[in-house]
Amino acid sequence: MFLKGNEMPENNIDLAVILGDGVGHDILPVAAEVIKEAAGVCGVEVTPTVYGYGAQRYLEEGSPLPEDVPALVRSLAEKHDAILFGSAGDDPRVPAGINCRDLLVGLRWELDLFVNLRPAPLLDSRFCPLKKEVPIDLVVVRENTEGVNVRMGGNFKKGTTDEVAIQEDVNTYKGVERICRYAFEYARAHGYPKVTMADKHGSLIHAHGLWKRVFWRMNEEFPDVEGEHYFIDTLCMDLVLHPEKFGVIVTNNMYGDILSDLCASLVGGVGVAASGCIHPGRVCMFEPVHGTAPDIALKGIANPFATVLTGRIMLDTLGHTRAAELIWGAVQAAVKENKITGDLGGDLNTKGVGEYLQEKIVELSKEQ
Ligand code: ATP
Mean of the pLDDT values across residues 329-354? Predict the structure, then answer.
């Protein structure tokens, strides 16, 4: 749905499936089949190519990644239409630091994936930790390439009691404008009536002063979508008290990181939290929010919902709205019928949930 102008979605998707470290090995093969099924019943062929970068590659070949990571990123982007990534982090079977984190970070930066899209819809009130039952449908649009996360700065007199540490907060007009535009476009395309922007411009007068000016200017281009401003601290309180009041929330890299975890925990936590790293019109990367889950990795019991719902974001981003909706319908049905993994209170394993979802997708596609 973020195709520009008259562009039509392609009816085949060459998908790079990067298993990564840990639990990605359990989940990605299962999730890829579910995504393939949803696309397939809509006439879209998904051709996955599986890459085993990470700790497993280290065990088999002696290194987790090829030496030239930027070249690897370029070649993945040239060969594929989209990238589905498992997770990156330390694996207890190999020494610390042997993982595919460099590839994950490389993909985000080298491909200039400036949007980190993290929808957090509540599947069922039993997954919400709040006392009251309210509908929750949040979407955090996090700026993904700027802010304090660019690691500019340094330490002076490091390790002494006179140490000075400086961390720069980089905010550019271009960066703020494109993320605000994406948020308004997303809200318009998905039927959200407003976009909330969170900052702290009362204190961070320069950086967030820019956010404030650009956001309101951008709102003028989207008169059909209401703009709303919140200070980040007030927003955190209100999200817990009245999550039903919010929909699309746009914010900077650091606040987005924190806020999306808050939103994820309002709707069931890491097992269901999906995300996309997006640059409209380019090859994008889609990854679940959770990490490598070393405590349950390689046991076949992990919840595939986060990655399956990540596939929903991918299909939607590539313009395959119906296939994305089928995934959503199947996941909702799984929850209703208790076809879920142990972390959500069910008794199916990863594969069992995947098989249920595939069957449900076929069933739903016949009903529509
Ligand atoms: P990392 O260092 O890679 O981030 P972590 O253990 O610190 O790993 P997560 O991997 O996000 O962070 O795991 C946090 C908790 O959530 C763990 O108890 C893990 O088992 C659980 N968890 C994560 N992903 C899943 C999943 N897909 N299904 C079920 N439980 C999960």
Answer: 97
Q: Where are the beta strands (DSSP E) in 89-180?
A: 115-121, 137-143, 153-156, 164-167
Mutate to test the pocket of ligand 1, among 290, 299, 340, 343 (most ligand atoms within 8 A of CB): 290
How far apart CA 246 and CA 312 sit, in angstroms, is 21
**Paired sense of beta strands 82-87 and 248-251, if any:** unpaired
Q: Quick one: tokens of 242?
A: 């009245």
In tens, the pLDDT along 286-325 reads 999 999 999 999 999 999 999 999 999 999 999 999 999 9
> CA dihedral in degrees (166, 170, 171, 173; nearest 10)?
130
Ligand 1: atom nearest CA of 290 is 11
Closest C-alpha among 101, 17, 95 to residue 58: 95
Q: For the residues 63-78, what does the mean pLDDT come to? A: 95
Q: How many alpha carbons lie under 13 Å from residue 316 in its C-beta half-sphere?
A: 22
Instruction: Give me the chain's average pLDDT, please.
Output: 95
Pocket, ligand 1, Cβ cutoff 6 A: 23, 87, 89, 270-271, 290-296, 302-303, 306, 343
Coil vs helix vs strand at 300 = coil
302 Cα to the center of ligand 1, angstroms = 9
In degrees to the nearest 10, what's the CA dihedral of 318, 321, 326, 331? Answer: 70
